[in-house]
Amino acid sequence: MTVTLADVAARAQVSPATVSRVLNGNYPVAATTRERVLRAVDELDYVLNGPASALAAATSDLVGILVNDIADPFFGIMASAIQSEIGGPGGRAGGERLAVVCNTGGSPERELTYLTLLQRQRAAAVVLTGGAVEDAPHAAAVASKLRKLADAGTKVVLCGRPPAPDTGAIALTFDNRGGGRELTEHLIGLGHRRLGYIAGPEERTTTRHRLEGHRAALEAHGIEEDARWTVYGRYDRQSGYEATLELLRRDPSLTAVVAANDSVALGACAALRDSGLRIPDDVSVAGFDDLPFSIDAVPSLTTVRLPLAEAGARAGRIAMGREEAPPGGIATIRGELMVRGSSGGPRG
Amino acid sequence: MTVTLADVAARAQVSPATVSRVLNGNYPVAATTRERVLRAVDELDYVLNGPASALAAATSDLVGILVNDIADPFFGIMASAIQSEIGGPGGRAGGERLAVVCNTGGSPERELTYLTLLQRQRAAAVVLTGGAVEDAPHAAAVASKLRKLADAGTKVVLCGRPPAPDTGAIALTFDNRGGGRELTEHLIGLGHRRLGYIAGPEERTTTRHRLEGHRAALEAHGIEEDARWTVYGRYDRQSGYEATLELLRRDPSLTAVVAANDSVALGACAALRDSGLRIPDDVSVAGFDDLPFSIDAVPSLTTVRLPLAEAGARAGRIAMGREEAPPGGIATIRGELMVRGSSGGPRG
DNA sequence: AGCGTCACAGCAAGCGCTTTCTATGTCATA
DNA sequence: TATGACATAGAAAGCGCTTGCTGTGACGCT
């Protein structure tokens, strides 16, 4: 039924070995023979059997990309960049690799299961994007999995994720703390003294780091934080909306709201508007990430730009061995403060 | 070095066959034996060799999802929904399947290459999302590929894509024409008579269908279209920005701008604002898709909501054989007009 | 008591490919 | 002309798993 290497070999009047060599192009084959084989391949419409070849060669051309939420452009942009460097079809790299994007939905179990699945497929490389969960047992489980992958020859790269010591994984980490600090300092510089903070899910490293930066800025300027000023939520618009209403309820005198990311910030803007407050006249708003839509908000969003595409591309190249790993296997990528219309001096 | 089935078998004092059966659970194995095997698996930290198993069983648990642009939430949302039904880790389905998202970047060649790669991996199913390219040779090549995939037992589902006759592919198509028409009729109903249209890439089916709907509405209301009122571009914000400036240059008296999708519409809004025009007082704007950010635009965007998540979920279920295919293998999914702040009566 | 049934477990034959090693013909060199 | 050296091609041994078929006791039945 299905055409095999042997069929091609028969048709081209050569041995299967020769066909394999033509297809893999890593062994001298006379031009005329090669052409004959290629013609047979074409005529029979032969397609290599991936599993068989992976089994025999003990390698695979699968590259896994783990993301928390594929519907979120934050991850989409990174995944896209990673993939373009993986050299899937059309990429620069020679060999065709199948870049597979796996959506963990932020669930630790799924993350682990996907890693196992990739291990099972003997993936050539794995790139994990986005923050990690701080749950100790899970972190240990992931670390052990990563070590096993690395030991089995799979290249492991973390993109926008804190380093995983002793796992052999290369880490490109975002400086969430520094960005958070810079952002809040900008607001403080404008004169704000009462700032609400809408954090992401409490157990995520990204959440904690950004919040730490925010608090560091407050502290550096002698602003004592009110416990009511922080609300935890999810990394989405709705969460931002609800959290903002909650903040307003807790302390209507807030003059600025700092959000965990841009989506949350947009939700915050909507809530403020719905509460009859003007941005930035009454309340300033700041986001994080600088996703494409942030510039289209009205007023456009003050935020911290993370070079997602660049980081992804670099992660992809490292995963493919086309770029050297940073010294120590760890690189910190800084964000850039983007001051736009959503932030201004406090009212009055 | 690496642990194999045989190692587990030796440790559990059973034959490899038994271990395989325990792992696949499709053959009676005594409870005590099973437990012994499972313990050995655990102790040895055994991970099945995917390629070997796929080769021997002549099936794979890979499911491919093709998207045009993974950084675009339009595709991200569908991919996410498809994947959740595929039953990757955490999904409802029992068997663990690896859902792989492939980013074609809208390139026909890449699309074809990815299909071949998936064919090579003997994918269990393939879901193609988004519009197709209208280039005849390419369409034929894709159709032939789809037929081969279907013949080889791979389930092929099109989600948000026009049907591919005689390929055995199930199609869930968006009613882009109907949506486009409804949208423009809404604007005409408001009193607009001079409407600019910012189309997507000319060679895409989605572009053509939406534009056809727009024109049908114009015609139905006896509005003669000016050739200057249509500009082609890409499906992104920047394209919308530039196209709007171009439209304004060509005919400053336009009172409404209809965009190929929401991202383009946002770009249009930005261009209008930068040109000193108010929305909708001076010019109304309409988008398409109703992506999450559209409601956050100021004013919020009038658009056509496409049930991306629902369609994706359905496509996923069909691909898994957990839902029956629609009669005739084709279902048309309608959009819903969402009237919001960006559209109003023409000035004056 | 004799024998068919049933529930398990093992044997062994591949699945379709890669790759090492070996064979063969062709040259250039001595 | 004899002889390496070299360029190619083939034979064959797996890669690690699945599965059809073949045992083999333990049971229940007449």
Automatic annotation (TrEMBL), chains A, B:
Q: What are the UniProt keywords, alphabetically?
A: DNA-binding, Transcription, Transcription regulation
* Residue ranges occupied by any HTH lacI-type domain in the UniProt entry: 3-57
Which is an annotated GO molecular function term of this record? DNA-binding transcription factor activity
- The superkingdom listed in its UniProt entry is Bacteria
Q: Which InterPro entries match?
A: HTH_LacI (IPR000843), LacI/GalR-like_sensor (IPR046335), Lambda_DNA-bd_dom_sf (IPR010982), Peripla_BP_I (IPR028082)
What single Pfam family name could you report for this chain, choosing any that match? Peripla_BP_3
> What Gene3D superfamilies would the database entry show?
3.40.50.2300, lambda repressor-like DNA-binding domains (1.10.260.40)
Checking PANTHER family in the record gives: LACI-RELATED TRANSCRIPTIONAL REPRESSOR (PTHR30146), LACTOSE OPERON REPRESSOR (PTHR30146:SF153)
What is the name of this protein?
Answer: LacI family transcriptional regulator
Where does this protein come from, organism-wise?
Streptomyces cyaneochromogenes
